[in-house]
Amino acid sequence: MNTPSVKEYLIDLQNRIVQGLEEVDGKTFRLDQWGRPEGGGGMSRVIEAGNVFERGGVNFSHVYGSGLPASATAARPELAGRSFEAMGVSLVLHPRNPYAPTIHMNVRFFEALKEGADPVWWFGGGMDLTPYYGYEADAIHFHQTCKDSLQPFGDDCYPRLKKWCDEYFYLKHRKEPRGVGGIFFDDWNQPDFDTCFSLTKSVGDHFLTAYQPILELRKDTSYSERERDFQAYRRGRYVEFNLVWDRGTLFGLQTGGRTESILMSLPPIVKWRYDWKPEAGSEEDKLYTDFLIGKDWV
Amino acid sequence: MNTPSVKEYLIDLQNRIVQGLEEVDGKTFRLDQWGRPEGGGGMSRVIEAGNVFERGGVNFSHVYGSGLPASATAARPELAGRSFEAMGVSLVLHPRNPYAPTIHMNVRFFEALKEGADPVWWFGGGMDLTPYYGYEADAIHFHQTCKDSLQPFGDDCYPRLKKWCDEYFYLKHRKEPRGVGGIFFDDWNQPDFDTCFSLTKSVGDHFLTAYQPILELRKDTSYSERERDFQAYRRGRYVEFNLVWDRGTLFGLQTGGRTESILMSLPPIVKWRYDWKPEAGSEEDKLYTDFLIGKDWV
Q1: N or C: which terminus of chain A has fewer CB atoms within 10 Å of its end residue's CB?
Q2: Do B259 and A55 touch (CB under 8 A)?
Q3: For residue range A284-295, what is the model confidence (pLDDT) as tens digits?
Q4: DSSP β-ladder status, A30-35 and B181-188
């Protein structure tokens, strides 16, 4: 294992991504450095009221502590309570334009330590796309880039991580996928550290390729109050997923993480209304019938 | 035990409360009846875009099933997995006027059943007030009414349930109380069924007395975009509490409850912004310094 090189990679990735996004937006991301009394800290790069992004953040964090919460690992509950070290880059971006999709990407590395035992380590990560108005071309481009990022790791890698993403980013209480999916992996430690690290790097390195062209294509589409309203309504689902189901969010809140950095994932303006459904056949309805269906896009 | 009489009480309470609130608002609450494939169902009374209430609901539900989730009882985790019966009235109301506080009230009855064992039952409930702009008179009136409702059950009852409320309606990840508190009780089965039922009834019966005068006093206060904006920001805390910490919400979502009825508690328009704090000494700041402090109001 080479923990310092993971940290170095993550910090460089954060910088590259922020630079790429600043080129699209034209506004600079604010930098907040923070420390955590229990150990570790992070750097949050935040944008609000940008030209393209209404709200978003690209966060690096490196925390350690005693008492790994159960949310850290679904696969090995026996590790709960161990001391741990966790580092990662996590981003969510909410464009203002309702035709431009919300994006999430995360790469992370964990170590669970116990005196007298070998350290247990694993990588995790992925990215998924959440459109308000769907475009087949965008979903295909996004999934093709995800597939490209995993191609060096075997033909079965993308289908496996695509399925994992569909299962993870699913709102059980709505029986609804969060968006058009992408890839997701967790508890990843086979066949060896170097291969797992390479895969994680490849996912991180493909983020801008996956998202930037979609953003360029949609960010200036003209829209009216109707689309903004639907966007605000659908953003409610994003809040519900992140606060009720997302293990990453729960891990952060349970380990005394920095609340403002964790909740950067929440959209700037959100609406809830009772038992609302789009008119059958409308553009809004097409999101449900043609995109939120766990489809194989490539 | 007399389960039918609990149900009868709850349905009557829902009717009385809706009637009282309709008198204030002038608009009728919509009625939705729903069934649950696993057993039971409910009646949701919902208001949106009312004259006073921007969004709110007064829900009755009566559900049963196998596999009591852990969220149902903090005190007796050994009951998880039993078959169960649960019924209650639960309400949240979000007035449009930022000077009028959001209110929550709930009364509930649980039975956990196991073949060959005596049924285990308990009551739970409470009410708590969440102002955006605080008024000492409102907090005192609200707590005094809570105290009145518990007076027949002993001098130590109100202080105990007031403290329980402060502890329960607390956002750990913000280190912040949800509002000015009220009363809360759970796993309540001493000294006997009749006394517990009486206490629960007394809490339910005091709801309109506790909330209506505050609402009448504040609902027509003039306000500007500034107060609406602060209200939308603070409503974010309500969402965070309900989706991350509230056992009632988790119980509903985990038992396949009706999502639209459960999430009636979420406000109509909500804003999140990064690391925002009110200006020191402002009216908005006073909420934090003078009201969100777990104070003894009576």
Answers
A1: N
A2: no
A3: 999 999 999 999
A4: unpaired
